[in-house]
UniProtKB/TrEMBL annotation:
It comes from Photobacterium profundum (strain SS9). The gene is VPA0486. Residues 94-303 form the Endonuclease/exonuclease/phosphatase domain. Keywords: Membrane, Transmembrane, Transmembrane helix. This is Endonuclease/exonuclease/phosphatase domain-containing protein. Signal peptide: none annotated.
Length: 314
């Protein structure tokens, strides 16, 4: 039997050590972006496992297995279930349409055949918005986005089967818009609704603007929860351009529940373990997440649409 040398241990352990230490000090835009892609160490250990099989080194193979399981475990799945039973389900559909999306017909057909209670869209062009609002007006009569002097705040559009009240936008210093209002399904208490679409952190400036929006929203929610008139039922939805495996994600919205599912990129043939979760939903008790699932049968965007099943505890 071949030995497990110190050099082999060091080579196999160093990617995980670098990743863990990097997460603690990831305050540079490109560093945080790289560390958010956990598929990189996962693929490294997959290749290492194959290499140890080729070398017929049982000890190295065995040493690799815990790393494979660890990186596979933290990788978000296509669906996530937190409650086995979900009475009186509320369904929330969220989708980054992609500005260049050439055909929304499959999406419209799906939403007509499989009704949801609340629709949250990002990267909505005026053409997209006009088509969706008109085609879905009968089933989703309550709408925010596309009105004069409102437009589509950061490309966002909200459609609902149930009433929307006091809908407004809140701007950050960089001009990015947060939508805030009240969603009131029948037989439920009013739900405070927040939606946002911070910029993709493609450079240092956009990374900083995304972080400011996240902190603005986090402080807005916390301050509101501290008021006497606050409804405890809170819902935060959007494409946040923030990986669920990042340290920053773990610091947001204390007391809220979120179940990340893989949503980007939605490339043909790309395996789930090579994607990341950036389209999120947070719910505050008495709202609880029963399950979330990413749909794979709607093409046209680099994101997968996600359906979240919610219930409200009495």
């Amino acid at each position: 039997m071949k030995k497990l040398s110190l050099r082999s241990i060091f080579i196999l352990a160093i990617p995980t050590l670098v990743w863990v230490i990097g997460l603690l000090f990831s305050n540079i835009w490109w560093q945080e972006n790289i560390l958010s892609v956990t598929a990189i160490p996962f693929l490294f250990y997959c290749l290492a496992l194959i290499f140890t099989l080729f070398l017929r080194n049982t000890l190295q193979f065995t040493f690799c297995l815990p790393f494979i399981f660890f990186w596979g475990y933290i990788q978000p799945l296509d669906n996530s279930t937190s409650l086995s039973q979900c009475p009186q389900t509320l369904k929330v559909f969220q989708y980054n349409l992609r500005y260049e999306n050439p055909n929304l017909d499959p999406l419209v057909y799906y939403l007509q055949q499989f009704p949801q209670h609340l629709l949250i869209f990002q990267e909505t062009t005026p053409e997209h918005g006009g088509m969706l609002k008109e085609a879905l007006r009968t089933q989703y009569p309550y709408q925010f986005g596309g009105q004069p002097r409102v437009g589509y705040p950061n490309g966002q559009l909200v459609l609902s089967q149930y009433p929307l009240f006091s809908m407004k936008t809140i701007a950050t210093q960089a001009g990015h818009q947060i939508i805030h209002g009240i969603w009131h399904p029948p037989k439920y208490q009013p739900i405070e609704l927040y939606t946002a679409h911070p910029p993709s952190p493609r450079n240092a400036q956009l990374w900083a603007e995304r972080n400011v929006l996240l902190m603005t929203l986090n402080n807005l929610v916390e301050d509101y929860l501290d008021t006497d008139s606050a409804s405890p039922a809170q819902l935060i939805v959007g494409d946040f351009n923030l990986s669920s495996t990042s340290k920053r994600y773990q610091t947001l919205f204390s007391g809220f529940n979120s179940q990340p599912v893989s949503s980007w990129p939605n490339w043909s043939g790309l395996r789930q373990y090579l994607t990341i979760a950036i389209d999120h939903l947070w719910a505050h008790y008495p709202l609880e997440i029963c399950k979330r699932k990413a749909l794979i049968n709607i093409a046209g965007s680099d994101h997968r649409p996600i359906v979240t099943y919610l219930t409200m505890q009495k």
